[in-house]
């Protein structure tokens, strides 16, 4: 989990992050009828909801082509926004977990979460273009891309 720890160290805001109880994560999984990847659960159960306001600045300074992450969603928002975004045009079958600064979302495919797994691919829902595209083969790989900035 070094990539996750390094991501939080490099990018997490210094405001108090509160780890999320495993019982609350299990409750979300029951509501979704899905298993969240272990790597994602490690992040939120160890650190809580990470806010990364400096990622955008660094991406702009470097001029790299990577979509920035700004906020990891609360568990209530993971559930409710996943449903809401589907009702407003996002293709069905995605679990949102984080947002950029423009209202687009990072997500896991529901079909990838039917069984317990250590990690899962990360997808990006562009709410302006109404498209979903794969941005990383795993949650850990996705975070590593930010660590390399």
Report what the structure shows.
With 149 residues, the protein is of the alpha+beta class. Helices cover 41% and strands 16% of the residues. It has a five-stranded antiparallel beta sheet. The longest helix has 13 residues. The radius of gyration is 14 Å and the shape is globular. The mean pLDDT is 91.
What is the residue-mean pLDDT, rounded to a whole number? 91
What is the number of beta strands?
5
Tell me the overall shape: globular
* Uncertain parts: none
Strand order of the largest sheet: 1-2-3-4-5
- Tell me the Rg in angstroms: 14 Å
Secondary-structure class:
alpha+beta
Distance between the termini: 18 Å
Largest sheet: 5 strands, antiparallel
Q: Could you tell me the strand content as a percent range?
A: 15-25%
Report the total helices. Answer: 6
- Helical residue percent? 40-55%
Order of helices and strands: HHHHEHEEEEH
């Amino acid at each position: 989990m070094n990539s996750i720890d390094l991501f939080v160290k490099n990018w997490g805001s210094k405001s108090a992050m509160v780890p999320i109880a495993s019982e609350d994560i299990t409750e979300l999984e029951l509501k979704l009828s899905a298993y969240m990847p272990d790597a994602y659960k490690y992040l939120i159960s160890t650190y809580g909801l990470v806010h990364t306001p400096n990622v955008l600045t660094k991406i702009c300074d470097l001029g790299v082509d990577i979509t920035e992450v700004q906020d990891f969603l609360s568990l209530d928002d993971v559930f409710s926004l996943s449903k809401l975004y589907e009702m407003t045009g996002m293709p069905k079958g995605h679990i949102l977990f984080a947002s950029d600064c423009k209202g687009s979302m990072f997500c896991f495919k529901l079909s990838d979460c039917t069984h317990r797994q250590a990690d899962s691919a990360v997808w990006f829902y562009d709410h302006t273009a109404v498209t979903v595209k794969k941005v990383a083969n795993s949650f850990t790989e996705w975070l590593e891309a930010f660590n390399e900035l």
